[in-house]
């Protein structure tokens, strides 16, 4: 019988918390002035790689997003070193950062649905 809450999910959640704290407080890179949110961490089965999905509170163009991702990926060894000090794991996974635009897509869909519902309310009054 498979566990419903396996180890890789728990480690992913803990990594998400620790990485977000490291990015907010320990990284002193002046190129990262934006508020960065770690939205999800996916870990491989052998715990050797972690895909870290980040999003930004501001709406950025693709060029700025790419620059920040390059900075984060270049700093991944530093972040990994800090994780070694904060977590008691035998293997700290290699970290790869990706941009998560699901919040922007969800916001866009929500705005479209709001416009449609307002149009439907207006048409109900005129029928």
UniProtKB/TrEMBL annotation:
UniProt name for this protein: Ribosome-binding factor A
SUPFAM superfamilies according to UniProt: Ribosome-binding factor A, RbfA
Keywords: Cytoplasm, Ribosome biogenesis
Membrane-spanning residues: none
A single cellular component GO annotation: cytosol
Cellular localisation: Cytoplasm
PANTHER family for the chain: RIBOSOME-BINDING FACTOR A, CHLOROPLASTIC-RELATED (PTHR33515)
InterPro entries on file: KH_dom-like_a/b (IPR015946), RbfA (IPR000238), RbfA_dom_sf (IPR023799), Ribosome-bd_factorA_CS (IPR020053)
GO terms, biological process: maturation of SSU-rRNA
Task performed by this protein: One of several proteins that assist in the late maturation steps of the functional core of the 30S ribosomal subunit. Associates with free 30S ribosomal subunits (but not with 30S subunits that are part of 70S ribosomes or polysomes). Required for efficient processing of 16S rRNA. May interact with the 5'-terminal helix region of 16S rRNA.
Gene Ontology MF annotations: ribosomal small subunit binding
Main location: cytoplasm
Family (UniProt): Belongs to the RbfA family.
